[in-house]
Amino acid sequence: MTTYLTRILEFKAGEVRDLKQRSPERLYREKVAELPPVRDFYGALRRAPESPINLIAEVKKASPSRGILVEDFHPLDIARRYAELGASAFSVLTDREFFQGSNDYLQLVASSCDIPVLRKDFIIDESQIFEARLIGADAILLIVAALEPAQLGEYLSLAHELGLAVLVEVHDEHELEHALEQGSRMIGVNNRDLRDFTFSLDTSLRLRPKMPSGIIAVAESGLKRSSDVMMMQEASFDAVLIGEGLLGEELQGFTWKRI
Ligand SMILES: O=P(O)(O)OC[C@@H](O)[C@@H](O)c1c[nH]c2ccccc12
Q: Can you identify the CATH homologous superfamily of domain 4-252?
């Protein structure tokens, strides 16, 4: 069945072919060895007992479901505003075709701010993990629904070997089980179904009790109101990942944890 996700992944496969032609793995390994260490993404997101929920603020220009969200898009200004709001980490979209993101945006944000940065993209090949490290990311997203079962474990290992943290994204019980079996340390529940872009906050609430303690738990997508954030805090998520909702006034006025 053709879904939004399958369409995105097909396009991504073409991009990855080009990327692999441009840069063989040997070159990546040499370059990565010269890089400074990453910032501690896991450490920034783990919520201490009694402390408020952490914010991963997403720097997002557009989405396939909503089109352009920010016409006059200045990623660094947006990131600085989110840091002032109290964000613990950033997520920067690097997918060009569907989200109008860019590696340049990530590079700019990562090199100008102290807060750790997640590369938000559809990773389907090891070359993209090396690339993430080279452009300055501290963490990557791995979407369980976008990978073959054997790939998740392999990519987790490679990312950790390169010093990158991994946010493993799941959408149902089955994916969660697989994520846990493969040794994920940080798991994000996407409230949005990437196959048809429908969403429900209940997805996070339903899956949270099935995540063992010790896992860093993140609720992702569709959070727009203070009450949504409070609900995830009460459900004992460590963090929320918010893009579009931060463009609205309500969450800009929210008292996020100050750093
Ligand atoms: O803008 P929102 O609804 O707050 O969502 C942010 C983030 O969760 C969403 O952009 C996202 C979650 N998983 C993804 C995977 C790929 C691209 C984007 C995403």
A: Aldolase class I (3.20.20.70)
Which pTM value belongs to this model? 0.97
Catalytic residue among 58, 131, 175, 244: 58
Query: Which tokens sit at 124?
Result: 């389907």
**Catalytic, out of 12, 63, 88, 120:** 120
Residue 68, sorted as left (phi over 0), alpha (psi -120 to 50) or beta, turns out to be beta
What are the tens digits of pLDDT across the range 22-75?
888 888 989 999 999 999 999 999 999 889 999 999 999 999 989 999 999 999
The amino acid present at 21, given as its one-letter code, is: Q
Closest of 147, 48, 59, 51 to residue 106, by C-alpha: 59
> Is 50 assigned a catalytic role?
no
Quote the distance between the C-alpha of residue 195 and its chain's center: 18
Return the higher-pLDDT residue of 187 and 29.
187
Task: Give the angle subtended at the CA of 61 by the CAs of 59 and 62, to the nearest 5°.
Answer: 125
How many angstroms separate the alpha carbon of residue 27 from the centre of ligand 1?
31
- Determine if ligand 1 sits within 6 Å of the CB of residue 101: no
User: Has residue 259 got a pLDDT over 60?
Assistant: no
Distance CA 95, CA 254 (A): 29
245 lines ligand 1 (CB under 6 A): yes
Q: Which structure tokens are listed for 250?
A: 């309500």
Domain residue ranges of the chain, discontinuous segments joined by +: 4-252
